[in-house]
C-alpha cells in the first residue's frame, strides 16, 4: 500500500468516524480496542446510516478497507446490535439496526441498482411513462427495462397490470430525497427538484 493511498484511507475513515461518533447507536468500542480499530468501527457506524442498503463491496471500497478488515468490523458491529444486514440476491446489504422496515429495506436495495433506480426516478417524474419511454430515458434496451420491471414487481414496488405504476411512490420519493447524496448525481438533481412533484392540498 502506498503512503498516498494510506493517507486517503485515513482521511476517509476520519470523515465517516466523525459521523459515527455522533450517531445514535450503542457504543461498541472498548478500552482494549486499538485506536485504529476504534476509528474504523466508528467510520462504519457513520457510513451505514448515511448510505443505508449499501452492499459489502461498496462499503469496503468507499471506506478503503481490506476485505478481511471490513468483514471483521461488520461482524463486531452486527453482534453488538449497532447494524443489521439482509441478503439481497447476490449481495448482503447493511442498515442501521431498527431504523427501516422490510419494505424500506427492499426499496433501498433496488434504489442502489442503476436501472431500477433510473426507472423509479423516471416514473416519479412521469407516472404515465411507458416501457419505451423508460428505455429511451435510461439509454437501455426494452428487455432490460422488462427484466428490471419484473424484479420491482416481485419486490412489491411496481404494478404492471396497466402499464407501469409505482405502488409506493411516496415512500420511494422520501427515500430518494433523503439519501440522494448516497446514490448518484441524477438522484441529487431529482431531489433538488422534488418539491415540484409534491402536491400541497391543505
TrEMBL record:
SUPFAM superfamilies: Winged helix' DNA-binding domain. Residues 38-108 form the HVO-0163 N-terminal HTH domain. InterPro entries: ArsR-like_HTH, HTH_HVO_0163_N, HTH_MarR-typ, WH-like_DNA-bd_sf, WH_DNA-bd_sf. GO terms for molecular function: DNA-binding transcription factor activity. Residues 121-162 form the HTH marR-type domain. This is Predicted transcriptional regulator, containsd two HTH domains. It comes from Halorubrum xinjiangense. The lineage of its organism: Archaea, Methanobacteriati, Methanobacteriota, Stenosarchaea group, Halobacteria.
